Design the sequence.
């Protein structure tokens, strides 16, 4: 990855770290300040979802590699079917699907947020990406354990054994030890083939800890997912669209991402309306955010995996 994108991402991480500190000071001074789950939903639908809205272009590239025709029908049918299957699995075996999603998401977050700094695509690095990405999952559990458990319960998780296991790992400080392990993975990634721009890893590390300490799990996740993870991925897509002019890349990205972003947001809002007839307002929002993201994450990651494998 060129030094240009590394510099852009370094500036982005620095700005994100600075803003996280400002927001945290505001949250500290105004303890009564709350952010509605509805705001979190709209941010995720507008900013978060858009970073995967060029999957159709990636799918077209993959289909060209395989020489598959009828792209439109096969791609969208496959994408939608995988999303529906994930939702069905979540309804049938919610605890197993949740754990699988958290494991997959940990690797995805660690890899997407770091791979532009790492040249070698080894199994060791994949493990380090996973351990680094675990921080996004573990930090809310460590700082706000009861609130995180409450979110799990609202996501159709009714398995008592699952909560006994969570209480066991919380009581025995396993969450803390796992965060320490995640910290060591960041240190190793930072020191391997050292360059100053890799300080991004620690800017992101402390940003994630700060927002999870001061904000509720939902708000902290929204800030991370929208303004760090999604923006970073979108920047890389803009750079691919126009390596010489990021502003023009932004314009092209916005134009190409808008249709699928609007379509996805529309389906989510329809789903929210249907859920709200059975569940409470906040519960419906949480289901749309996390189960909806899971249903989009699996086909998104599968597409990235197959494209990366076959491009190489």
Sequence:
């Amino acid at each position: 990855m060129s030094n240009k994108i590394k510099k852009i991402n370094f500036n982005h991480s620095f700005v994100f770290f600075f803003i996280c500190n400002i927001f945290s000071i505001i949250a500290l001074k105004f303890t009564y300040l709350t952010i509605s789950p509805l705001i979190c939903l709209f941010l995720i639908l507008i900013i978060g979802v858009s970073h995967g809205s060029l999957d159709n272009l990636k799918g077209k590239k993959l289909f060209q590699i395989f020489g598959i025709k009828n792209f439109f029908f096969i791609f969208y049918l496959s994408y939608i079917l995988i999303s529906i299957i994930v939702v069905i699995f979540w309804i049938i075996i919610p605890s197993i699907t949740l754990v699988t999603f958290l494991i997959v998401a940990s690797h995805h977050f660690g890899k997407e947020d770091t791979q532009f700094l790492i040249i070698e695509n080894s199994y060791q690095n994949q493990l380090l990406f996973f351990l680094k990405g675990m921080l996004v999952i573990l930090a809310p559990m460590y700082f706000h354990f009861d609130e995180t458990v409450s979110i799990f319960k609202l996501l159709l998780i009714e398995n008592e054994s699952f909560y006994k296991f969570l209480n066991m790992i919380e009581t025995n400080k396993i969450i803390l030890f796992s965060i320490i392990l995640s910290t060591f993975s960041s240190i190793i990634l930072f020191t391997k083939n050292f360059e100053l721009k890799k300080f991004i890893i620690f800017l992101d590390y402390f940003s994630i800890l700060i927002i999870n300490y001061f904000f509720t799990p939902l708000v902290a996740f929204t800030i991370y997912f929208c303004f760090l993870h999604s923006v970073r991925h979108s920047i890389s897509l803009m750079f691919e669209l126009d390596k010489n002019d990021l502003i023009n890349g932004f314009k092209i990205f916005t134009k190409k991402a808008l249709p699928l972003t609007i379509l996805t947001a529309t389906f989510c809002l329809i789903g929210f309306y249907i859920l709200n007839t059975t569940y409470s307002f906040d519960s419906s929002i949480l289901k749309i955010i996390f189960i909806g993201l899971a249903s989009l994450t699996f086909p998104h990651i599968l597409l990235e995996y197959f494209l990366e494998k076959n491009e190489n």
